[in-house]
Amino acid sequence: MTLIEMKDVWKTYPNGVMALNGIDIYIDKGEFVYVVGPSGAGKSTFVKCMYREEKPTKGSILIQGTDLAKLRERHIPKMRRKIGVIFQDFKLLPKLTVYENVAFALEVIEESPKVIRQRVMEVLDLVGLKNKARSFPDELSGGEQQRVSIARSIVNRPPVIIADEPTGNLDPETAWEIMDIFKEINERGTTVVMATHNKDIVNSFKKRVIAIEGGRIVRDEQKGEYGYEI
């Protein structure tokens, strides 16, 4: 079943830079997809369009049948509840504990306290941070902060996770640990779309690889490889 569909998607920034040039792609439910390419190729714009951080200049982006390109601004927050987004720099709320950071995603949709506690502890257990529930972000390592970010992104049980360079600020050993969590999430049925520069991870966890250069898809391979020199 197709979960994400991009049809003739173009993105030109106000300064005239064309970041996406006629993108057509289908991503099915349950897939794990790497988005790779040189710096400035359009990878970040590609993933940002998937959660409407950027609006395409032309074309349509459908997630579960909803066209993000046509969404009004006031409807974007509600749409994003169906998408888990993970960033390179974690974006945790510094004055909230680990538990509170993750719970916040459920509080905004007014889940019951009982459901919030159950789901938060469930995802903290999944990412190995159940014993850090009362800690604050500045008491955690970079890898632990990224685990909190992942827990927050999946606590709503979204059908898709979009990760933009999620291991970019982590040491190699921690990056592998984070990838094991992504693998587990994917095996439970969640679609994962990950933009990355990490050649070793892409070549070891062989999944679908979409390569972007000059705003165009130049390669789309099942069980592909990174294909670029670092």
TrEMBL record:
Domain (ABC transporter) ranges: 4-230
Keyword ATP-binding: yes
SMART domains documented for this protein: AAA
MF terms in GO: ATP binding; ATP hydrolysis activity; transmembrane transporter activity
Pfam family, one: ABC_tran
Protein family membership: Belongs to the ABC transporter superfamily.
Role description: Part of the ABC transporter FtsEX involved in cellular division.
Protein name, per record: Cell division ATP-binding protein FtsE
